[in-house]
Write a structure and sequence with these properties.
Helix content is 35%, strand content 13%. It contains four helices and four strands; from the N terminus they run E-E-E-H-E-H-H-H.
Amino acid sequence: MLLHFGWIDHSDWKAQLSQTGQAAGLSEETYTYKLIPIVGEYRLNTPVTLLKGVGKKTAKIFEAEGIKTVRELKNYQGNNQKLLEFKQKLENLE
């Protein structure tokens, strides 16, 4: 999911663990109870590298199969077990 609508306060932000860099994030609780996901066709154009669980290793598998977007993954007809697992997760989101 790319877009969410809602209200967050400064207290909702979680500081990064390391003191280097400028990263901060939101808790799962904030996403669950304070932000509403905006669904729509645009989500199919999301890069597969933004899917939960996709790291460098899995990104290379997607790249080798020519899959760059969620739409391409959804239409995947190959037999790579790893990609089929991610494709199944997409079906569970719908």
